[in-house]
Amino acid sequence: MEGLQVPGGQIRLDDTLGAAFMGHFVTTVLYGITTLQAFMYYRRHHRDTPALKFSVLVLWLLDSLHAGLITGAMYWYCITNFTNLLAIQRPIWPIPTMVLVSNISNSIVLTFRTASSATAYGNAFLSVFIFVDATYFTAKLYNISSYAEISDFSWSLYLGLSVEATVDLIVALAQCVLLRSFETGIRRTDMVIRVLITYSINTGLLTSMCAIGALVSYAAEPTKFIYFAFYFVLSKLYVNSLLATLNARGSLHGTRTRRRPSGALSGGGGGGGGGGGVQSKIAFRTPTLTMSTDPSSSYDPSSSDPEAGGGGIEFTTVIVGETASADEIVQSVHSEYAMDKRDAFP
Questions:
Q1: What pTM was estimated for this model as a whole?
Q2: In the chain, is it the N or the C terminus that has fewer CB atoms within a 10 Å radius of its CB?
Q3: What is the Cα–Cα distance from 334 to 299, expressed in whole angstroms?
Q4: What integer is the mean pLDDT of 293-302?
Q5: Which residues, 6 or more positions from 185, have their beta carbon under 8 angstroms from its beta carbon?
Q6: Which of 133, 35, 150, 14 is nearest to 90 (CA)?
């Protein structure tokens, strides 16, 4: 739309409130994905350490606060001051608070990501530097009356976003080098490693390109809010990348148990599971089977004589996870005995 004339100059809503609104829309979508991923994490990963579970909870709470602050700011600009165009250029407290919350959340995620990389100490130092720079920027933002005054300390914005993009790229490259060193030549293992390498590159590039987008858009149009759209989304990408990594562990390592109908128990080398995703394997051996030649003889499970109705049936139970129920084992023994008897008397 055309620019609107106000006492302070000309304001275009498309590249101010319009750009901020689009960033808010993408932010709310990503927040929904964050909430879903947090729910999936607590549902599947019960054995993680309490510290890791608490960190995920803190990240989700910070992400919720981040989304709430942006929503509150957009309500103030778009609804409360609907007819006050000068209010668009006035910073309100949810915006600098959002910057601080965003950087706390990003620092936690970077701590997790750099802990497993080959350049952990250097990246940890850069993460601390980013947080200190963001704290300085937030303090300055609280004390200005117009977004145009950001130019007085814009070096802090340039420096923080540049280092943030660099750290993301360094972490992604370090993880790729580290993962390549784990290749064994075994096809199945190497396929998983290649998936992890691709994932590291994609997540690192995504957050890095978002930071670069905020940097370039501010440098090109410092009086517009296009950089708001990128910065709103940046924190959500960090949290979602970490939660996606945590939730992908089971599928990548093949540790997730497939559920099968209750009572299904496989014999021989096959795997079976009772209800609730339990896996059990029952292996039977009949090395000294001496079946009775009397066709009328029958097997009595309650008999105390182990030779009654047939030879001593030996079985070995190989348990993966929890033990199968006694009823399932007895049912499997009966089925195996019936098969042996049918083979003996065709």
A1: 0.68
A2: C
A3: 9
A4: 51
A5: none
A6: 150
